[in-house]
Amino acid sequence: MGYIFASVVITAYLVCLPPVHCMITKDTGVCGSTKSCYSIPDGCNPDVAGSCRAFSSWSLTADNTSLLINLWSNTTTYIALGFSKSGEMKDSDVYACTFDMEVLRSRNEEDENDNFPQELIGVTNPSVMFDQGIISCSFLRVLENDTYDDTFFDLTCPNKYTPILAWGGAVRDSRIFEHTDRGHGHEEISFDERCSSGNGLHPSTKLHGPVIFFALLSSFLVIFFQ
Ligand SMILES: *[C@@H]1O[C@H](CO)[C@@H](O)[C@H](O)[C@H]1NC(C)=O
Ligand SMILES: *[C@@H]1O[C@H](CO)[C@@H](O)[C@H](O)[C@H]1NC(C)=O
Ligand SMILES: *[C@@H]1O[C@H](CO)[C@@H](O)[C@H](O)[C@H]1NC(C)=O
């Protein structure tokens, strides 16, 4: 019995418990080791009730061509991740997941905050869930597209952008409108992990080692004392 219990503890930790976000579609991995994360507040965990207002993570696919992006928010309208050249809403390439389970692309122009719908190119495998006031989604976004215009930002190394999260506005006719809240990173980062080491967006990493150590230790104690 003790051995079974220990196995369950270890498996649950490795597969599902924080900081692994098992609740989110396809969002496995650990912030700071197998994926990068940006969230509001910093370092929050969407698996813990009341922890997050908005969460994003991304990792490079094995073929180095795309980012697997996950977004989460407790909102009934949309959650959007923008790649920003200005550090603010202006001049951003924006990807939103909506309550009616669409992925939308839009652009904020260089000189204004208004958001204009764009053709959804470069996005595959979309999966959007809306359940009990929470939107979570995942999709692949190609790093670059040489044949498209420069509204489609080139995310390859060494280009850097500031991540922006916005949520809680309105969605009408496949278009997102004024967010009710947002936040942006404090610095430009590389989304292409081939040159993003040390970008400072990895708050959960430090917990991982000690937690796994204690999970293993308690499992062995259970085996020993049964
Ligand atoms: C979302 O979660 C945050 C953090 O717990 C909370 O402050 C906020 O009120 C929630 N918003 C909604 C719309 O539930
Ligand atoms: C992807 O990039 C990594 C790091 O530069 C490299 O080691 C790996 O061989 C690349 N994979 C492919 C399929 O190009
Ligand atoms: C690149 O953009 C073109 C349109 O210019 C589009 O047809 C094509 O599907 C895009 N490629 C990828 C990989 O998204």
Bound molecules: 2-acetamido-2-deoxy-beta-D-glucopyranose
| Average of pLDDT | 81
Q: Which regions are unreliable across 5 or more consecutive residues at pLDDT < 50? A: 8-24, 198-223
Count of discrete alpha- or pi-helical segments spanning 4 or more residues: 2
Strand content: 25-35%
Strand neighbour order, sheet with most strands: 7-6-5-4-10-13
Helix percentage: 10-25%
Give the total of beta strands. Answer: 13
Rg, alpha carbons: 19 Å
Structural class: alpha+beta
Largest sheet: 6 strands, antiparallel
Give a description of the structure.
The chain has helices at residues 2-15, 205-225; strands at 36-40, 54-60, 66-73, 78-84, 92-98, 103-108, 115-118, 123-131, 134-142, 162-167, 171-172, 175-176, 181-184. By secondary structure, the chain is α+β, with helices and mostly antiparallel strands. The protein has a 6-stranded antiparallel sheet with strand order 7-6-5-4-10-13, with no helix packed on it. The chain has a 5-stranded antiparallel sheet with strand order 1-2-3-9-8, with no helix packed on it. A hairpin with a 5-residue loop joins strand 2 and strand 3. Helix 1 (2-15) packs antiparallel against helix 2 (205-225). It is globular and about 40 Å long. The N and C termini lie close together (8 Å). Residues 8-24 and 198-223 have low confidence and may be disordered. One 2-acetamido-2-deoxy-beta-D-glucopyranose binds next to loops. InterPro entries: DOMON_domain (IPR005018), FRRS1L (IPR042789). The chain crosses the membrane at residues 207-225. It comes from Holothuria leucospilota.
